[in-house]
Predict the structure.
Amino acid sequence: MCNTPELMMVLTPADFDVIEGAMQAAAPKPGRIMIDDGHREAVGRAVIRLYAAGVTDPARLADAATVMAATRLLDRRRWPTQDA
């Protein structure tokens, strides 16, 4: 079993509200298209990783997670690029 910080967290309903708000803020807007479900999953993983690191503002979580997923700065062993 993996002992990553995001797996060791106990989340409260308030935590889920923040995470849900971040995911809604990161959802596609007119003129912005989320690439695919894999990209949405990468954004979700980034939101949880950032939340576990202490970022609790939904707008900041959404922005940072979207950038992390888009630029593939996440752990590439867990989320390999399509061309790798």
Q: What stands out?
A: Residues 37-52 form the longest helix (16 residues). The chain is about 55% helix and 0% strand.
